[in-house]
Amino acid sequence: MDTIRSLMKQHMSLSAMRALANSKVSYTTAKKYIKINGFVAQDLKKYVASRKKPLATILSISHAQINSKNKMTRTYRIANPSYLTLVKDGYGISKNYVPNDLVTVNVATASADTPNKMRKAAATALEKMAKAAKKKGLELVINSAYRSYTQQEELYNEYHAMYDTETADSLVAKPGYSEHQLGLGVDMTSQSVVDGKYSTFGETKEYQWMKKNAYKYGFILRYPSSKTSITGTSNEPWHYRYVGKKAAKECYINNWTLEEYILHHGFDTKIIYAE
Ligand SMILES: [Zn+2]
């Protein structure tokens, strides 16, 4: 009875509980895996057989797809997104998820209708970063920040009308799988691009400056050119992700993507295996 009560506290689904019972693994053995975010009851037998440390076991068996090189077709849902939530193919957020602390970012935008809201902490950090850049004579501009599920869906459909499926998929995330819906992803540009002096952000001094300094404000360059196979996303010099100062610094020092950060630390929130 206590076991069932504690499993229910873990928000375990009925089918997961069934899988747990069918595995015939003792609760004492199972317990050390169950408490780790990312645990999948259906994989329990494989965990026990692997004889590695619980976290390493769970990440490599149930979540090999964190690294996009390892293709898997599993889908997970993040129940309560955090600053460190991994959102990518296979790791989605609910259609209804809207961060409850969205605010307008007080930084210049590329046009009058540029989406310029982010979660409070990310907005404050971006404002500080833009101010610091300005002191160096650099003008950071927002190209796109928070996008709702519906806005992402519209964008996705637009790209799919313009390009073939493969190209479109490499350029725009599926609705429910975009960091923009988290309110933590932002596409940056610079005034020099807006003015037409450069055609892309990657050519600008602002980009060079952000690459070196964004971590000080809690942002990471999310899709670097050298890590496209891990992230599964092509080089996006403009897309930055707020993860908080501590994690951003660790990623910067170690040259890690968010995927690599999670492979070292595990998930910080519950994720649900959507069977
Ligand atoms: Zn983006």
Automatic annotation (TrEMBL):
What UniProt keywords are attached to this protein's entry? Carboxypeptidase, Hydrolase, Protease
GO BP annotations listed: proteolysis
List, alphabetically, the Pfam families matched.
Answer: VanY (PF02557)
What SUPFAM superfamilies does the record tag this protein with? Answer: Hedgehog/DD-peptidase
Q: So which domain of life are we looking at? A: Bacteria
Domain D-alanyl-D-alanine carboxypeptidase-like core: residue ranges: 116-245
Q: Which residues form a coiled coil?
A: none
Entry-linked InterPro entries:
DD-CPase-like, VanY-like_core_dom, VanY/YodJ_core_dom, Zn_M74/Hedgehog-like
- Protease recorded as keyword: yes
Name under which the protein is recorded: D-alanyl-D-alanine carboxypeptidase family protein
